[in-house]
Input
Amino acid sequence: MKILAVANQKGGVGKSTLTVHLAYAAIEAGLRVLLVDMDKQGSLSLSFPRADDGEPGIVASRLYEAEPPQASPEWVADGLAIIRADNGLLSIDKAENQVIRRPGTALRRFAQDFDLCLIDTPPLLGVRLMASLAAADYVVTPVSVGLYELAGVADLIQTIHVIRTQGFNPRLKHVGILPMKTNNRSVEEREALDSLREQYGAAILPEVLPERAPVRKAIARRRPVWVGTRGEGHLLAANEWRAACDSILGRIAK
Output
């Protein structure tokens, strides 16, 4: 099982939307997928409601317990299970640093049952983000290109460096930075994206995901944007998102 964290220390950049679409793309590729919602807002959990006959599974805060929990993830569809966010996550960021390695240990218990684990992380530096990165084999960084959002990229790059060099997870690989929610009509945003490419070079993924209404509608309907396309704008969004997800999954499959 490979573990991919979707992380940025700034909120509102589309982490959950990207995680959801990566899950759909992976399932369609025949992979068995485990989702982990480390963000107390629970957007990822909301995107995959409990099946009518589904049983509650392990919740995310239990991944931090000293003894790996014996409970299993909650299955929500064929080949798809989730570990949901819960209120217990609120106290995790007050915990000592020794809990940072525990989620990785707990998740590896499920390695035989899944091909890919996707972790949706909280939008702030703390124990939960550090633990997600410590558990992951890979991390991808969605980012919008406003002034405040770009400042968060440097912070996350530094956090990844700390995780790699301080003994938490030297194997962590950065898949890259994915520009999202961009406005192609804005001169300022185009210049900011050019500046981002100059600063981070090959770390910036070639795919770009502009802000598009069909994506919001697809999330509201709990399905990927490439399903049930109607109209030129919807088809454009579908092709963009499919290409980005396939690119990311292809990079971690190597």
